[in-house]
Amino acid sequence: MNAREAAFRALEAWRRRDARPDMVLSEFADSARLDERDMALASNITNGVVQNAALLDYWLSAISDRGLSRIDDSVRDILRLSLYQIAFLDRVPPRAAVSEGVELAKRRAPRASGLVNALLRRAADRRGDMPAVAAGSDAERLSIMYSHPLWLVNEFISAFGRGAAEDILRSDNAPSPDTLQVNTLKCTASEALEALAADGVDAKPHPIVPDALVCGGRGRIDRLSAFEKGLVWVQDGAANMAVTAAGVKPGMTVLDVCGAPGGKSFAAAVMMENRGRIITSDIHEKKLSLVRAGAQKLGIDIIETMAADASRFDGRFEGTADAVIADVPCSGFGVIAKKPEIRYKSDEDTAPLPAVQRRILDNVSRYVKPGGVLVYSTCTLLRRENEDVVSAFLAENGDFAAESFTLPGPAGEAETGMITLLPGQGGTDGFFICRMRRKA
Fold it and tell me: pLDDT value at position 281?
């Protein structure tokens, strides 16, 4: 199996059974023994097609004599991945993209190999001169240009304005480097940088998040010696800021609900200097094994794990926590750059989430001791999952009040106690954070 075959199979799995393309590629890397170069190309092609599906289809329609609806889905996958190489990958010669696409069609859809050859040759002739997107409304044009569902584009425009909305869409399709948090229990940021350099990783300090490093692509992070030694863990700067907003300190009791795979618990433990108590709960017991393994690797011994449904009350923890961190299940529209397939969730798919989020918030608020802090966070940008949820909660729970907090970088002071971090601004994911204080 070569890179293009792997990309085709990943796209096919995504289309047929809604599988995560990156997970499928990881399986191929292990089973088919793809080397790092082929894996990188396969990942580039797969993510590129998912990120640009609507735009690729628009271009294919422009150069095709027949409607795309008359082209078999597997053939369309081949056309998309080949056209992506022609239009976006400067290092791939157009003739190579055409040839590989035709060969893939001969293996996967032999009757359509002539059609594939003809369309890809037309595309290669127009490389650098693809037709501009002409659509009815501005939102429709943005939807095609950046391959986001129209309903989601309209949500972004309504919430943030047209200019900021396009910035979000553009950021969603841009490369998203890995962010690593430095385990200051074991080393300094400078020492972590040296260890990563020894691993062949080009890393640099995060532009705004203290003790965080941004690294370029270098295969699987979990295979780096710096990771194995527990000098760093993977966590975006926005998620780290949610823990900063909680204001945890040594000696505190902290509950991290919906906490697997453990990034926020690790950040809290480091901020607490590994002194105090952290209970990390998650509804999935299997995911908690990742928390335990990560804590052991990082040298953290104050984390306890517990399988629990965060929406169901556990009397053992009533009024016991100095801080509760609730990073609740959400639509994920703030992390599209890392998980490009998320954009294709429908409005109907995500509509039930606010009710789930509110049940969790109502329940875990009971674990906060008088005078303690409750942090509600999501990695989405939809108001109905963010401001609307916490505003409704505060309206019905007079013993809680939103409280201002300060974050590093351009985010600055969250005077209302709520803040939305937009993707790409300050080098973080999109994220919503609300800090609430329970009255003493």
Answer: 98
CATH class of this structure's domain 237-438: alpha beta
Is the domain spanning 3-125 CATH 1.10.940.10? The answer is yes
**Count of beta carbons in the 10 Å neighbourhood of residue 214:** 17
| Model confidence, pTM | 0.94
Q: What is the pLDDT of residue 116?
A: 96
Residues 6+ apart with CB under 8 A from 340: 47, 50, 51, 172, 173
Reported in sequence order, the residue ranges of 56-107 that DSSP labels E, i.e. its strands, are none
Task: Provide the pairing of β-strand 232-234 with 203-205.
Answer: unpaired
In this prediction, residues 47-56 reach a mean pLDDT of: 97
Extract the tokens encoding 14: 């995504």
pLDDT tens, residue by residue, 226-252 = 999 999 999 999 999 999 999 999 999
Query: What pLDDT is stored for residue 34 in this prediction?
Result: 77
Q: In which region does residue 200 sit, left (phi positive, over 0), alpha (psi from -120 to 50) or beta (all else)? A: left
Tokens linked to 291? 């928390």
Helix axes 150-160, 138-145, angle to 10 degrees: 120
For the domain 178-234, what is the CATH code? Answer: 3.30.70.1170
Structure-token match 């509950």, residue found = 255
* Residues belonging to the active site: 379
Nearest 5°: the CA angle 287, 289, 290 is 70
Q: What is the mean pLDDT of the chain?
A: 95
Q: Where are the domains of the chain?
A: 3-125, 138-172, 178-234, 237-438
pLDDT digits (tens, 9 = 90+) for 198-221: 988 999 999 999 999 999 765 678
Query: Where would I find the H helices in 136-284?
Result: 138-145, 150-160, 162-172, 189-198, 225-228, 237-246, 263-271
- Helices H, strands E: what count in the chain? 18, 14
- Please check whether residue 271 is in contact with residue 212, taking contact to mean a CB–CB distance below 8 angstroms: no
CA neighbor of 438 nearest in space, from 387, 379, 392, 375: 375
Locus of tokens 């199979």: 9
Closest CA to 344 of 190, 199, 147, 208: 147
3 state DSSP class of 217: coil
Residue 22: pLDDT band by 50, 70, 90 thresholds? confident
Alpha helices in 175-319 (DSSP H): 189-198, 225-228, 237-246, 263-271, 285-298
